[in-house]
Amino acid sequence: MFRRLGSTAALASAVCLAACGGTAPTSTTGGADTPSPPEAGVTIIENARVFDGERDLGEVSLVIRDGLIERVADAGANDLPEGAERIDHRGRFIMPGLVNDHAHVGNTRGTEHGDRFYTQDQVSADLRQFQAYGVTTVVSLGMNGSAFGEIRNAVNADPMQGAQLFGAGGGVGTPDGAPPAANMGLQDDPVARPADAEAARAAVRAQAEAGVDMIKLWVDDLGGKAPQMQPEIYKAAIEEAHRHNLLVAAHIHDLAPAADLVASGVDILAHGIRDQAIGDDLVDDMRSAGTGYIATLQIDEANYIYAEQPGWLDTPFLRNALPASVLAQWSDAAWRENKLADPATQDHRDALATNLANLSTLREAGVRIGFGTDAGALPHRVPGFAEHRELELMVDGAGFTAEQALVTATSAAAQLLRFDDRGVLQPGRRADFIVLSANPLEDIRNTRSIEAVWQAGRRVAGPVAEYDAQARD
Ligand SMILES: [Zn+2]
Hints:
Blueprint: H1 8-20, E1 42-51, E2 56-65, E3 68-74, E4 85-88, E5 93-96, E6 98-103, E7 108-109, E8 112-113, H2 120-132, E9 135-140, H3 148-156, E10 164-167, H4 197-209, E11 215-218, H5 231-243, E12 248-251, H6 255-263, E13 268-269, H7 280-289, E14 292-293, H8 298-301, H9 316-319, H10 324-330, H11 333-341, H12 344-365, E15 368-369, H13 385-398, H14 402-416, E16 433-436, E17 450-455, E18 458-461
Parallel strand pairs: 1-4, 1-5, 6-9, 9-10, 11-12, 12-13, 13-14, 14-15
Antiparallel strand pairs: 1-2, 2-3, 5-16, 7-8, 16-17, 17-18
Helix pairs in contact: 4-5, 12-13
The site of zinc ion has 5 residues, from loops.
């Protein structure tokens, strides 16, 4: 099984360390942060309309104990625990925290990026931004520095440090190929770049021994500009990862390597296929193998959309997520003109259109779809905002209903990575959820109406309207 922290016992003790020891960090989010007396320890959220990650439950009461959902009770139930803190959320909407299966942390600061930003402070600042935007689980899919395991363990023991972090360690790439070290600012390159199958097995073994949660591969010739990982190397890496019970997610761009990776037993394609329409054969192969697919629609759009100055660029929901230097860049007319005049911009638009069409095909065919954005890898892939935009693109461009998009970004995203403790608000699962003022099932853009974010049974952030990326570092 997928190696994972956050067992029930560990969670309960972590919550108690923070909430029972009287050392809970102070915050400005209001009374809900006040540590409860230890003998109470139970919170009941009454009368909210709950989407549990799989279905709309209507108005119910959530009973929360020791960081977990203990019970989902009918509204008006008269046998709820005595002495609990009670919060009336009539008129509000609750859904599970979003699960991002493909993001990055500790790789950007302002308009700069690179592995020199992989510090606990920077990782935690990214994770607090994700959390403020309702993303309570983040899988950092490669390019993590050597401190990954230590940072993950520290962050996951304290919900005030940000979203829960899992990841792939450095990941496995290609010598002089993807991920491109110079473009990604990798000075002390954390990515293993094996030259043959034996070295690939050794790299996977080393990452497994370091305690990574999964293995990431890059299989991409970067538009013909770089050598691509050879099949014998990724086949060896996949086999070795499976020997260690680790899932393998592969960065791809094109159909041909994606098809061979699926035939080679890869568990997850971590980007959408963007060079051509996916064919029936590959769709059938993915469905029968149970291969997961994370489209990352926003990745190509983010390359040009901000230069186009869409009307929503001015909304506080986006602006609050931007460092000052990024906002200044996007407001600069010369930068925008350059960006739009770049011939690559049309390629990015075409890539998004192909990605949307392929995602629609795979959704209709019943292939497993996960949720990810590649947020945090580069400064214009904005943590928090990218996830809500991804949901909107899924609905507006790939034929998802709002409910299907929400299922994908919560329960399905969790199941794809074998997280069996989250993604749904059901008894025994983590109390990681978002309180909204508007119904996301009616309009997917209502996922942005975040009043509060709860993680491990504690209110940890919100409202999102008060978040300010410019104050985060
Ligand atoms: Zn990525």
